[in-house]
Amino acid sequence: MLVTVFPAAAFGTNCYVLAPGPGEECLVVDPGIGVEDTLRTALEEHRLRPAAVLLTHGHVDHVYSVTPVCGGDTAAYVHDEDRYRLVDPLAGLDRALLAMMEEQFGRAATWREPERVVEVADRQRLQLAGLELEVLHAPGHTEGSVLFTLDGVPDGLPPEEGLDRTVVSGDVLFAGAIGRTDLPGGDDQAMRASLRDVVLPLADTSLVLTGHGPATTMRHERATNPYLQGLIA
After folding, report:
1. Closest residue by Cα to residue 210 from 159, 156, 160, 141
2. What is the DSSP string of 40-56?
Protein backbone atom coordinates (compact mmCIF):
# COMPACT_ATOMS: atom_id res chain seq x y z
CA MET A 1 0.00 0.00 0.00
CA LEU A 2 1.26 3.45 -0.92
CA VAL A 3 0.78 6.11 1.77
CA THR A 4 1.91 9.72 1.43
CA VAL A 5 1.52 12.27 4.23
CA PHE A 6 2.22 15.99 4.44
CA PRO A 7 1.14 18.75 6.83
CA ALA A 8 -1.33 21.47 5.93
CA ALA A 9 -0.21 25.09 5.89
CA ALA A 10 -2.07 25.83 9.13
CA PHE A 11 -2.60 23.94 12.40
CA GLY A 12 -0.22 21.12 11.36
CA THR A 13 -3.08 18.94 10.14
CA ASN A 14 -1.90 15.76 8.44
CA CYS A 15 -3.25 15.13 4.94
CA TYR A 16 -2.92 11.53 3.77
CA VAL A 17 -3.03 9.96 0.33
CA LEU A 18 -3.74 6.21 0.31
CA ALA A 19 -3.49 3.97 -2.76
CA PRO A 20 -2.85 0.32 -3.63
CA GLY A 21 0.25 1.52 -5.49
CA PRO A 22 1.62 4.06 -7.97
CA GLY A 23 -0.46 4.77 -11.05
CA GLU A 24 -3.72 3.81 -9.31
CA GLU A 25 -6.79 5.54 -7.96
CA CYS A 26 -6.30 6.94 -4.47
CA LEU A 27 -8.08 8.26 -1.41
CA VAL A 28 -7.33 11.72 -0.02
CA VAL A 29 -7.88 11.96 3.73
CA ASP A 30 -8.47 15.28 5.52
CA PRO A 31 -7.31 17.87 2.96
CA GLY A 32 -6.74 20.86 5.24
CA ILE A 33 -5.78 24.47 4.76
CA GLY A 34 -3.42 25.29 1.91
CA VAL A 35 -2.70 21.72 0.75
CA GLU A 36 -3.69 22.07 -2.91
CA ASP A 37 -0.23 22.59 -4.39
CA THR A 38 1.48 19.93 -2.27
CA LEU A 39 -1.33 17.48 -2.96
CA ARG A 40 -1.13 18.13 -6.69
CA THR A 41 2.62 17.45 -6.63
CA ALA A 42 2.14 14.20 -4.70
CA LEU A 43 -0.54 13.01 -7.12
CA GLU A 44 1.63 13.80 -10.12
CA GLU A 45 4.72 12.18 -8.61
CA HIS A 46 2.94 8.87 -8.04
CA ARG A 47 0.53 9.17 -11.02
CA LEU A 48 -2.50 8.94 -8.74
CA ARG A 49 -6.13 9.82 -9.44
CA PRO A 50 -8.41 10.78 -6.51
CA ALA A 51 -11.43 8.49 -6.26
CA ALA A 52 -12.82 9.95 -3.02
CA VAL A 53 -12.06 12.24 -0.11
CA LEU A 54 -12.41 10.77 3.38
CA LEU A 55 -13.04 13.14 6.29
CA THR A 56 -12.37 11.99 9.83
CA HIS A 57 -14.53 14.88 11.08
CA GLY A 58 -15.83 18.25 9.98
CA HIS A 59 -13.49 20.80 11.58
CA VAL A 60 -12.22 23.41 9.14
CA ASP A 61 -8.56 22.44 9.56
CA HIS A 62 -9.41 18.98 8.19
CA VAL A 63 -11.88 19.91 5.43
CA TYR A 64 -10.89 23.34 4.10
CA SER A 65 -9.56 22.08 0.75
CA VAL A 66 -12.13 19.34 0.21
CA THR A 67 -14.01 21.17 -2.55
CA PRO A 68 -10.97 21.73 -4.82
CA VAL A 69 -10.26 17.98 -4.62
CA CYS A 70 -13.85 16.88 -5.13
CA GLY A 71 -15.87 17.26 -8.30
CA GLY A 72 -17.30 15.03 -10.97
CA ASP A 73 -17.48 11.50 -9.57
CA THR A 74 -15.19 12.32 -6.61
CA ALA A 75 -17.29 12.66 -3.46
CA ALA A 76 -16.52 13.61 0.13
CA TYR A 77 -17.28 10.93 2.71
CA VAL A 78 -18.21 12.12 6.22
CA HIS A 79 -20.17 10.68 9.14
CA ASP A 80 -23.79 11.75 9.11
CA GLU A 81 -23.49 13.52 12.49
CA ASP A 82 -20.77 15.83 11.11
CA ARG A 83 -22.48 16.38 7.75
CA TYR A 84 -23.88 19.72 8.93
CA ARG A 85 -20.36 21.07 9.40
CA LEU A 86 -19.71 20.95 5.64
CA VAL A 87 -22.39 23.59 5.03
CA ASP A 88 -20.00 26.24 6.37
CA PRO A 89 -17.15 25.16 8.68
CA LEU A 90 -15.94 28.77 8.80
CA ALA A 91 -19.08 29.83 10.65
CA GLY A 92 -17.75 28.60 13.99
CA LEU A 93 -14.41 30.43 13.78
CA ASP A 94 -13.87 33.66 15.65
CA ARG A 95 -12.91 36.82 13.81
CA ALA A 96 -9.35 36.86 15.16
CA LEU A 97 -8.65 33.42 13.69
CA LEU A 98 -10.17 34.37 10.34
CA ALA A 99 -8.03 37.54 10.32
CA MET A 100 -4.93 35.45 11.07
CA MET A 101 -5.70 33.15 8.14
CA GLU A 102 -6.22 36.13 5.84
CA GLU A 103 -2.90 37.63 6.93
CA GLN A 104 -1.05 34.34 6.42
CA PHE A 105 -2.51 33.49 3.02
CA GLY A 106 -3.06 36.99 1.67
CA ARG A 107 -6.78 36.56 1.05
CA ALA A 108 -9.99 36.16 2.96
CA ALA A 109 -11.05 32.61 3.79
CA THR A 110 -13.90 31.38 1.62
CA TRP A 111 -15.93 28.21 1.55
CA ARG A 112 -17.99 26.33 -1.02
CA GLU A 113 -19.81 23.19 0.00
CA PRO A 114 -18.76 20.11 -1.99
CA GLU A 115 -21.27 19.04 -4.62
CA ARG A 116 -21.22 15.35 -3.73
CA VAL A 117 -21.25 14.26 -0.09
CA VAL A 118 -21.71 10.65 1.01
CA GLU A 119 -22.75 10.10 4.62
CA VAL A 120 -21.20 7.11 6.36
CA ALA A 121 -22.23 5.19 9.46
CA ASP A 122 -20.59 3.16 12.20
CA ARG A 123 -19.16 -0.23 11.09
CA GLN A 124 -19.89 0.56 7.45
CA ARG A 125 -17.47 -1.02 4.98
CA LEU A 126 -16.31 1.02 2.03
CA GLN A 127 -14.65 -0.28 -1.12
CA LEU A 128 -12.94 2.67 -2.77
CA ALA A 129 -9.86 3.02 -5.00
CA GLY A 130 -9.10 -0.69 -4.70
CA LEU A 131 -9.02 -0.52 -0.89
CA GLU A 132 -11.50 -1.86 1.66
CA LEU A 133 -12.02 0.27 4.76
CA GLU A 134 -14.21 0.08 7.84
CA VAL A 135 -15.72 3.15 9.47
CA LEU A 136 -15.60 3.29 13.28
CA HIS A 137 -17.71 6.03 14.85
CA ALA A 138 -15.81 7.57 17.78
CA PRO A 139 -17.58 10.74 19.01
CA GLY A 140 -16.09 13.05 21.60
CA HIS A 141 -13.91 15.46 19.64
CA THR A 142 -16.94 16.10 17.44
CA GLU A 143 -20.27 14.32 17.22
CA GLY A 144 -19.33 12.57 13.99
CA SER A 145 -15.65 11.83 14.47
CA VAL A 146 -14.59 8.51 12.94
CA LEU A 147 -11.61 6.24 12.51
CA PHE A 148 -10.95 4.58 9.16
CA THR A 149 -9.31 1.15 9.41
CA LEU A 150 -7.93 -1.11 6.68
CA ASP A 151 -5.81 -4.22 6.37
CA GLY A 152 -2.14 -3.81 5.54
CA VAL A 153 0.41 -1.10 6.24
CA PRO A 154 2.40 1.31 4.06
CA ASP A 155 5.18 -0.15 1.95
CA GLY A 156 8.66 0.16 3.44
CA LEU A 157 7.89 -0.33 7.13
CA PRO A 158 10.41 -2.56 8.93
CA PRO A 159 8.99 -6.10 9.22
CA GLU A 160 10.21 -6.46 12.79
CA GLU A 161 7.45 -4.09 13.89
CA GLY A 162 4.93 -6.85 13.09
CA LEU A 163 2.27 -4.36 11.99
CA ASP A 164 -0.53 -5.62 9.77
CA ARG A 165 -3.31 -3.02 9.99
CA THR A 166 -3.63 0.73 9.48
CA VAL A 167 -5.90 3.06 11.46
CA VAL A 168 -6.48 6.66 10.38
CA SER A 169 -7.46 8.20 13.70
CA GLY A 170 -8.16 11.85 12.90
CA ASP A 171 -8.35 13.85 16.12
CA VAL A 172 -9.52 10.97 18.29
CA LEU A 173 -6.09 9.55 19.14
CA PHE A 174 -2.65 11.16 18.91
CA ALA A 175 0.79 9.92 19.93
CA GLY A 176 0.63 10.33 23.70
CA ALA A 177 -2.55 12.41 23.63
CA ILE A 178 -6.15 12.64 22.41
CA GLY A 179 -8.26 15.28 20.71
CA ARG A 180 -9.69 18.12 22.76
CA THR A 181 -13.33 18.02 23.82
CA ASP A 182 -13.92 21.65 24.75
CA LEU A 183 -14.92 22.87 21.28
CA PRO A 184 -18.56 23.05 20.11
CA GLY A 185 -19.83 19.52 19.63
CA GLY A 186 -17.14 18.06 21.87
CA ASP A 187 -18.09 15.81 24.78
CA ASP A 188 -15.65 14.50 27.38
CA GLN A 189 -17.86 11.58 28.42
CA ALA A 190 -18.40 10.58 24.79
CA MET A 191 -14.64 10.72 24.21
CA ARG A 192 -13.94 8.46 27.18
CA ALA A 193 -16.52 6.00 25.88
CA SER A 194 -14.94 6.09 22.42
CA LEU A 195 -11.49 5.47 23.84
CA ARG A 196 -12.79 2.54 25.88
CA ASP A 197 -15.13 0.96 23.31
CA VAL A 198 -13.53 1.85 19.96
CA VAL A 199 -9.82 2.61 20.47
CA LEU A 200 -8.82 0.09 23.14
CA PRO A 201 -10.14 -2.93 21.19
CA LEU A 202 -7.87 -2.09 18.24
CA ALA A 203 -5.13 -4.66 17.72
CA ASP A 204 -1.66 -3.89 19.05
CA THR A 205 -0.39 -4.57 15.52
CA SER A 206 -2.20 -1.47 14.22
CA LEU A 207 -0.25 1.45 12.78
CA VAL A 208 -2.03 4.67 13.79
CA LEU A 209 -1.94 7.59 11.34
CA THR A 210 -2.92 10.59 13.45
CA GLY A 211 -4.62 13.85 12.50
CA HIS A 212 -1.76 15.89 13.96
CA GLY A 213 1.79 14.91 14.84
CA PRO A 214 3.70 11.68 14.24
CA ALA A 215 2.32 8.23 13.52
CA THR A 216 2.28 5.73 16.35
CA THR A 217 1.16 2.17 17.09
CA MET A 218 -1.59 0.79 19.27
CA ARG A 219 0.99 -1.28 21.13
CA HIS A 220 2.85 1.90 22.10
CA GLU A 221 -0.27 3.92 22.94
CA ARG A 222 -1.77 1.16 25.04
CA ALA A 223 1.41 1.06 27.11
CA THR A 224 2.19 4.78 27.36
CA ASN A 225 -0.75 7.05 26.50
CA PRO A 226 -2.03 8.47 29.82
CA TYR A 227 -5.55 8.88 28.43
CA LEU A 228 -5.85 5.14 27.87
CA GLN A 229 -4.63 4.13 31.30
CA GLY A 230 -7.31 2.80 33.63
CA LEU A 231 -9.81 2.21 30.84
CA ILE A 232 -11.15 -1.32 30.43
CA ALA A 233 -12.41 -2.39 27.01
Report:
1. 141
2. HHHHHHHT-EEEEEE-S
